[in-house]
Fold this sequence. Notes:
This protein has 22 helices and 2 strands. It has helices at about 10-30, 30-70, 70-75, 90-100, 105-120, 130-145, 145-165, 180, 190-225, 230-250, 250-275, 280-300, 315, 320-340, 345-380, 380-390, 395-400, 405-435, 450-470, 475-490, 495-510, 510-515; strands at about 5, 435. Helix 4 crosses helix 18 (about 405-435) and helix 7 crosses helix 21 (about 495-510).
Amino acid sequence: MKTKVTIRKPVFITMCIIYIGVIVLGLVSPASFAAAEDKIVVFACSNFAWAYEFLTLALILFCFWCMFSSKIGNIKIGGEKAKPIMSRWNWFVISLCGGIATGIVFWGIAEPVTHYMSGIPLFPDIKPETAMAAKLALSTTYLHWGLSEYAYYCVAGIVIGVAVYNMKLPYRISSCLYPILGEKAMGKFGTFIDILCVFGLAGGVSASLGEGALQIGAGVGIVTGLTPNKMMWIIILTAVVITFILSSYTGISRGVRFFSDTNAKIYMGLLAFVLFFGPTAYILNLFAESLGFHLTHFFEQSLYTGAWNDGDMWPTWWTVNYWSWMIAYAPLMGIFLAKIARGRSLREFTIFNFLLPGGFGVLWFAIFGGASISFQKSNGAIWQLMSDKGTEAAVFGFFQNLPFTTLLRIIFLFTIYISIVTLADTMTTTISSLSINAKNAATVEPPAKIKIFWGATLSCLTFVDLATASTVGNVSGIDATKQLAITVAFPLLIVMILLVISGFKMLLNYEQYNTIDDPEHSIVSKKFIIDYDIDDVVDGIEETIPEEPKEA
């Protein structure tokens, strides 16, 4: 029997009004659009950088607690009788590729080379273009793209997953705040929280789409000789929307799974190629030294705010920017990850959504970053290309130092494109799920028309942001995407803090919230409980999983 789906008007209509207003403002008065972004960024980072950084450490602590606590780690998303709905490989690649977005393919070369050439104010005695600068550069990327980053996704997924599938609350982000807000989380205040989360994610996704459009444009320009411009961005974004629309009709079971599997295999192939055809010994030696530096200075780098120097904007444009990006993504990425993790324990969830992808991020930057620093040290071409054609051109300059340059560039263009499509598909699915009312909203695939609408809206916002940067001229295209991420994530900072507090309370008192397995002793109000149909899985997402051997 087909589930009846209706529009959740408070969320859908409010977000339509907000984003149509933002898009119109950006088109009609780009200077005002850029000025508004700039003021929010300065206010957020000047006054609350400490909050972003303490929050990140709290999230890491939460993940390790779930991993090593026998009591908490054994809790299953969906209850004791829940069974996994996909293989570990498919689960891992969807979790990995859905969370990576365009990040590592954009910054894998650009960030380590930038830090190596420019230095970091936190360590003024470490001069650019030195051996210590190389270690510091990679250590910084491990902070930004390792465990700290994935802690956001992981904690959001755990807290939302337990709230929806174990406490049996409605499929909404606000449900995870029930332990600390009670019935208020289910009322108007909860709806307001959901609106904030959709607002934040839509802006975060638009920023990532902007990075992807810039990088594809730069790659096409280098391969073909064409000059990237607004028309090229429109063509790229239109192609992305069309591709993800076709994917959306197949559902998570085929579209996202296919793109994620393809993406993951290309990532691993590229890693192996660069490691074996690049300066292998240098990569491995620098990896060992930079990892040691990272472990030694982890807390110092994690809590760097630039407090002693009012003009120090490095934390704003790097660490706080990344945590803003994660805050924008975390709630809706979490609800998506929970959706595909039913039947898995919290320990498994932490391993597959925190430890493994965080380790993959470190490995990626160790290999690509180490090789790029080696090439930069040898000929200086990468930094020169970044200066001439923009940060987005870095990776295409990198491939000049390897065999099969043209082929690698084309493969990488395809990789970026697939990354954007995977991102757009997974996140528009999640936004759409929060925009509808349905009995089984936690399991039903949202209507394609809703997903198409959100995909088109995000693409329009992306174009406005990039066009505004090029029109106003105060910031580069990549800085515009950073400003957008920080701007939309700032209101969500308090939501993430509340989510962590609620998560600790929920799991410490799990017996009181275990509605799925012990409804008689659950303190969750019966009027909010949703009886999800266990067999009503997401559009064929369920697959046959071989029985795992039982412990003796």
